[in-house]
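Predict the holo structure. Ligand: alpha-D-galactopyranose.
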Amino acid sequence: MNLSYASVREQFRERFGLVPVLFRAPGRINLIGEHTDYNDGFVMPAAIDREIVFAFALSDDSATVIHAANMNETAAVDLEHIAKDEGGGWINYLLGVLDRLRLRQPGIAPFKCLFFGNIPTGSGLSSSAALECGFAYGLNALNNLGIPAIDLIHIAQWSEHQYAGVRCGIMDQFSSMMGKKDHVFMLDCRTLGYRYFPFILKGYEIVLFDTGVKHALANSEYNTRRGECEEGVRILQKLDPEIRSLRDVSAETVGKYKHLFPGKVFDRVWYVTGEIERVQAAAADLERGDLLAFGKKMNETHRGLSELYEVSCPELDFLVNESLASPDVLGARMMGGGFGGCVIAIIGSSAKRRIEEELYETYKRAFGIELKTYEVAIADGVGKIE
Ligand code: GLA
């Protein structure tokens, strides 16, 4: 889907008769560090060249109206009475942002907003984070609120928790806001300190394979995993009350106390502590320019997510296994929360076409689904469009 800024501007003018200011907010990928963010661990994401464009103007009347151009749906909002819409849908991500913004700065003036995006939804590319972040950023600018980016990130995350019902970590919102062209960044989700790494792949490319499925248990299982990690922390705290999260424990220590964890809790904790260590080792690989070692770590992450953390699904496992059958694929793994969405792979440029075509055929034969492939580039985070 082509995204023309001029056409968004034009649509806005036609609909509202006002001249808008434009902002953009990207989706994200995550190279490594999955299900570590809500455990105070490390992640290594980047913003991508798929985005939502927002057109905003202060109202010339007292009405606040938001139009979702992709769906051709319009919502009127009463700024004095912000509450979750039980009907659900896209408006809740925005209402949650408004709720928090108004708590902090009651003086938000009535406005008109139209947004249009080309981030596939339900594919694990964080279109919802882009929606929250772009909206928060735009309103902040439009009203000269002066709220720092880090607070906007928290406002966006809060909206996801309270209005969308997913207890997500900070990675997606942070990436949409802080991404930097041609760089991945390693984020310490405890301190929120971060460091950019140039990510220019000579002879390789980042390719996303979209399973085209999102299994219904995705959100409930996500929250269950969080609960299991918290249970793991409570058990570890009996050994050492200083432990506040899985970030505070090594995989080695967890291994020693395997017998203390009931049911699946050991596997969950074992995966997370290993993954937190793996991200740090992967950062060292990047520093050495060792893409081969980096790719292997992505593969290990997938194995952990599939076998220990159990957030993969047959479609994701299939695409990872088929990809890795080719020596031109350095690394492949499921990305994001799991139970569907995309596989991220690093593929040799010369073999890319052939692999994409082969996967399309085998995936269709196995699942009857036409595989969608996205070739993505790493882009800047949220910003104003001049
Ligand atoms: C989702 C959440 C993130 C993160 C990932 C898993 O994308 O929104 O906060 O937990 O899953 O790494």
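The chain has a mean pLDDT of 96. The two ends are 22 Å apart (CA to CA).
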